[in-house]
Amino acid sequence: MEQGHSIQHFEIPSSLGYMDLIIQSGRQFLGALKECKDCGLVSSYATLQAHAKFSWMELLYVVLCSLALTGLRTTTTTWIFQPFSKWCRLRPREAEKVPESAWKCLFYSLSWTYCSYLLFFTEHNFFYDSPSAFHGWKSGADVPRNIALIYLIQGSFYAHSTYATLYMDVWRKDSVVMILHHVVTFCLIMFSYAFRYHNIGILVLFLHDFNDILLEFTKLNIYFKTRGGAYHKMNSIITDIGSVLFSMSWFWFRLYWFPMKVLYVTCCSSLQSNPNIPFYFFFNVLLFLLTLMNIYWFLYIVMFVVKVLTGQVKEVNDVREYDNSKDQKIDDQDHTKTPRHKDYINKQSMANGFVKKKRV
Prior knowledge:
Radius of gyration: 23 Å
Number of helices: 12
Number of strands: 0
Largest sheet: none
Order of helices and strands: HHHHHHHHHHHH
Shape: globular
């Protein structure tokens, strides 16, 4: 790749809208496609060999760290989250969901805090000047240690999360899409690290993790508002506030900032800074696929808002979960009648395999 081009200071137009993004990105895609005369598997493999830099030792670190995260989640679930749920006397169904939400809330809080530190308190100020993420890009350049650390942690987490969605999490209506999301995100993390697109990568992580913090924190308050056999108004108020903030932040972070600060840069300004940037189509297709999944989940938010406005739901709940109202009645009944049968039903209803046989 030629590096003789002078860096062009490419700024995002202040009046950029969705239609401008689609039109300009489409033009860049078509223009790059016309110039790519020898595109194909052979050329892609050659580009991969020429520009990707990822050692077997780094891959081993990711595998070991993902196993460590799985073990850490199992340990915290067994020794912290489950005993705490029991101590709070949560209903069985809520108690089953607390460890998952508590684990995710903890991880995303730490991850987002660190990404915020990188973007606002170091020299990596790509939030305010996202086109600069591709300025001075060089194939095989060294990745700063502070960015390499978050890449290791995030790559390991999404490898762990793919397994966890299948075997540890509650199975939901969107679990298949969630697995696809984890695979796409893992590919973006690994390949963006190998091709040294890590600058824009930390911005992508920052714009996505914040919503997950609000989601899991709100869900925890849903579970704890009926603890100890009583209704707790404070948790209900926090739940209502959290769901409003979550809905607003999802649109602002993932459906506004993400297209304007990331997609526009990767589609347009990346070519301005580096006309021969490798794997241009591959990364942008994955990023647009991530955008489609963000829109898909936003439809669940809209669905929930509609149900609230039309009076179909009185309490905030996760609309992605299957209707377990019948099973909940079992939880509320006197368990002394048929304890063994009831415990068996509860365990089976929460098992992923059982739900998948019924629902998928």
